[in-house]
Amino acid sequence: MTKEEKFWEWFKINNSKYFYVNQMNSEKKEKLLNELLKQLHEYSDKLYFMIGGFPNEPQELIISAEGNKDYFNKVEELILKAPKINDWTIIAFKPPMGADSITEFEDVKLNPKKIWFLPLDNKNNPRALGLKLYLPNFTPKKEEVFLEGCYQVLDTILGEKSAALDIHHLQLDKLPANPEKKGLIEFVELPKYIAWRETKIQNKKSN
Fold first, then answer.
1. What gap in Å lies between CA 45 and CA 115, rounded to an integer?
2. What is the pLDDT of residues 96-152, one digit of tens each?
3. How far apart are the C-alpha atoms of 167 and 149, rounded to whole Å?
4. Which of 101, 52, 79, 59 is nearest to 161 (CA)?
5. CA-to-CA distance for 12 and 187, rounded, in angstroms?
6. 166 near 129, Cβ under 8 Å?
7. What is d(CA 4, CA 75) in angstroms, rounded to the nearest whole number?
8. Among residues 139, 145, 148, 149, which one has the least CA distance to residue 112?
């Protein structure tokens, strides 16, 4: 039995214990989540998970590499072996969550709807897209905190895989008074921009 098969065999036997895990008291919940993490780490100690859903509806198990590209293949190999289990949806990588979530990192709050960006293209590597993000509350003294928070916002808007593979570097700056007049793009439009850009690159290749 492969490591992938061993993990899924365990989850098939134990999945019912996790169906209402988010409605349990904290002690029982923590014990179950620690056991699931232990089983997952026997497959790969670089993978993590998110689990849950609305009560009395199908639940989700999301397998994540926490943005670590070196272990994306481990996520994909595990999901490839996933069995069909009634009332469970099994997902590779954290999916996009939309623009309604406020990200808090240390003492910094980041609202995706108040962030703007400019693309930073690399002529030597057309696929290497950088972004200059403009934040209303940015201060250079806390640049490292803001940077870490912005990578979390990227996960929220793009999902784990796109955030890691499509964005190669970030720069940060204070949001100017009239961002639209300066040619900036609203951050919530980033998924559409990436899709448009990928189509443009593919069209150039085919011509």
1. 34
2. 998 888 999 998 999 999 999 999 987 777 778 999 999 999 999 999 999 999 999
3. 15
4. 79
5. 40
6. yes
7. 10
8. 149
As a whole number of angstroms, the distance between CA 90 and CA 59 comes to 9
Residue 136 contacts residue 148 (beta carbons within 8 Å): no
Write down the residue that tokens 């949806």 correspond to.
Answer: 89
User: Which region, left, alpha or beta, applies to residue 191 given φ > 0 means left and ψ of -120 to 50 means alpha?
Assistant: alpha
Task: Give the pairing of strands 167-174 and 129-135.
Answer: parallel
Q: Find tokens 């019912």 and name the residue.
A: 16
List, for residues 40-96, the tens digit of each pLDDT value. Answer: 999 999 999 999 998 889 999 999 999 999 999 999 999 999 999 999 999 999 999
Cβ-in-10-Å burial (0-12, 13-18, 19+) of 7 comes to: buried
* CB 188, CB 99: distance < 8 Å: yes
Asked if 42 and 7 count as a contact pair (C-beta separation under 8 A), the reply is yes
